[in-house]
Design goal:
Structural class: alpha/beta
Helix content: 25-40%
GO molecular function: nucleotide binding; oxidoreductase activity
Pfam family, one: GFO_IDH_MocA
Oligomer: single chain
CATH architecture of the largest domain: 2-Layer Sandwich
Number of domains: 2
Radius of gyration: 20 Å
Number of helices: 10
Shape: globular
Largest sheet: 8 strands, mixed
Family: Belongs to the Gfo/Idh/MocA family.
Number of strands: 14
Distance between the termini: 52 Å
CATH topology of the largest domain: Dihydrodipicolinate Reductase, domain 2
CATH superfamily of the largest domain: Dihydrodipicolinate Reductase, domain 2
Order of helices and strands: EHEHEHEHEHEHEHHEEEEEEEHH
Keywords: Oxidoreductase
Length: about 325
C-alpha cells in the first residue's frame, strides 16, 4: 500500500494516552482513526477520528490498516490473532504474550496471514540502544553483563498484581533486562544457572533475580516491584565496557549518554583499570515511541525499516519462561 497508514488502538491506558497517541500525531503519513476502550470517554480523550467500546469493531474496521494493542497481558494473544485474521498489521505492547508457546501461536498467525506482528519493545528503537547493540557485537572474548529494572509499589487494583492476567515483575520490567541480555551476549538461548523469586500475597513475583549463561558469557538480571527505583545496563569484556547509565531503558524526550571504556587490563571486569580510555557518546533528545511508529508505518506502506523480529520475541519469552520455572522449582 502507499499513502496514509490508518491506525486503530485497543486500550486507552497510560502508555496509549501519554506516549503512543502523542507520538503517532508526530508521524508523517499516519493517523489515529479509531480507539477502542471499555471507557468511551478515555477512548475519546486520545482524539481519534472516532471512538468505540468494542475491540472487535477496531479490528474489523475497513478504514484501519494497523492495530496497536495495549491491553493486559492475558488479552494479548487473543486480540493479536483476531486483528491479524481481520487483515490488520499488529504492534502489541510487551510482553508480546504470556509465554513462548503463545508467541509461537502469534508467529503462526502472522505467517498464515502474511501480515506484520511486532512486539512494542520501544526502547529497542532508541538510537542509544541501537549503538550499544552495535558496540556489544564488536566485543571480543568472553563477556559479562548486568541489567536491572526496579521500582517500589504497584497499585493494588492493577493487573500487574494478578497472576492469571500475566502479572509480576519478571513479565513487566524483567522483559527489558532479559531482552538486553540476549542482544548484549548475542545469544539465542540461555541456560538458567540460578533464579529466585519473592512471591507476594497475590501470587505474582514481586522480585525476580537470575544468573544466565551461554557460550559468549554470563548475564545477571533483576526485576522488582518492591526495590528502590533503579535501572542499569552494563556490558563488559576484556577490551571494552559499555554502560547506559541510570535511565538505561526509559530515556524519553531527553538527551542521553553512553559510557564506553576501551582497553585496560584485568580481563572481564577489569576494563577501565590501568590504561582504560573513557569516552562518552551523547544522543539528542528523541521519542523512541515515535521512531517505533515511524518504522512500523513504513513497513505497512511497503518501505524498508527495521522492526524487532518475532524470532527475537520468542527467544526472550523462552528465557522468561525458563527463569520463572527455575525460580518456582527451587
Amino acid at each position: 500500500m502507499s499513502g496514509l497508514v490508518r491506525w486503530g488502538f485497543l486500550g486507552a491506558g497510560f502508555i496509549a494516552s501519554k506516549a503512543m497517541a502523542p507520538a503517532l500525531r508526530e508521524v508523517a503519513g499516519a493517523s489515529l482513526q479509531v480507539v477502542g476502550a471499555r471507557d468511551l470517554a478515555r477512548a475519546e480523550a486520545l482524539e481519534p477520528v472516532r471512538a468505540t467500546t468494542s475491540y472487535a469493531e477496531v479490528c474489523e474496521a475497513d478504514d484501519v490498516d494497523a492495530v496497536y494493542i495495549s491491553l493486559p497481558n492475558d488479552a494479548h494473544l487473543e486480540w493479536v490473532v483476531r486483528a491479524l485474521e481481520a487483515g490488520k498489521h499488529v504492534l502489541c505492547e510487551k510482553p508480546l504474550a504470556m509465554n513462548a508457546a503463545e508467541v509461537a501461536q502469534i508467529q503462526a498467525a502472522a505467517d498464515r496471514t502474511g501480515l506484520l506482528a511486532v512486539e512494542a519493545a520501544w526502547n529497542r528503537w532508541h538510537p542509544r540502544t541501537r549503538r550499544a547493540e552495535e558496540l556489544a557485537l564488536e566485543m571480543s572474548g568472553p563477556r559479562s553483563m548486568a541489567a536491572w529494572f526496579t521500582f517500589p509499589g504497584v497499585p493494588t487494583d492493577n493487573y500487574r498484581l494478578e497472576a492469571r492476567r500475566g502479572g509480576g515483575a519478571l513479565l513487566d520490567v524483567g522483559t527489558y533486562a532479559v531482552a538486553a541480555a540476549h542482544w548484549a551476549l548475542d545469544a539465542d538461548v540461555f541456560d538458567v544457572d540460578v533464579a529466585s523469586a519473592n512471591v507476594g500475597s497475590t501470587g505474582v513475583d514481586l522480585t525476580t533475580t537470575a544468573v544466565l549463561s551461554c557460550g559468549a558469557g554470563r548475564a545477571e538480571v533483576r526485576s522488582s516491584f518492591e526495590q528502590p527505583e533503579s535501572q542499569g545496563l552494563r556490558v563488559e569484556s576484556g577490551d571494552r565496557v559499555i554502560d547506559l547509565g541510570s535511565q538505561a531503558f526509559t530515556s524519553w524526550r531527553a538527551p542521553s549518554e553512553l559510557l564506553v571504556v576501551e582497553g585496560g587490563v584485568g580481563g572481564v571486569g577489569g576494563v577501565g583499570g590501568i590504561g582504560g580510555i573513557e569516552r562518552v557518546e551523547t544522543f539528542e533528545a528523541c521519542d523512541a515511541y515515535q521512531l517505533m511508529l515511524e518504522a512500523m508505518s513504513a513497513r505497512v506502506r511497503g518501505d524498508d525499516a527495521w522492526l524487532l523480529p518475532l524470532s527475537t520475541s520468542w527467544q526472550v519469552a523462552a528465557t522468561l519462561d525458563a527463569i520463572a520455572a527455575f525460580a518456582t522449582s527451587n
